[in-house]
Amino acid sequence: MPEPPAPTSLRAVLDSLPADPRVVATGNHATPWTLLGLVDESLASYRLWVLNAQRGVPDRDGVTYETPFVGPGMRRSPRLRYTPSRLSLVPRLFTTTQPPDLVLLHTTRPRDGRLSLGTEVNVLPAAIEAARARGGRVVAQVSDRVPWTYGDAELDLASIDLLVEAEEPPVPTAPGGGGIDAEAAAIGAQVAARVGDGATLQAGIGAVPDAALRGLTGRRGLRVWTEMFSDSVLALEQAGALDQDVPVRASFLFGSPELLAWVDRNPRVRMMRTETANDPGRIASNPGMTSINTALQVDLFGQANASRINARIHSGFGGQTDFIVGALHSRGGQALMALRSWHPKADCSTIVPMVDEPVTSFQVTAVLTEQGAAELAGQDERTQARHLVEHAAHPRVREELWEEAVALGLA
Question: pTM for this structure?
Answer without folding.
Answer: 0.94
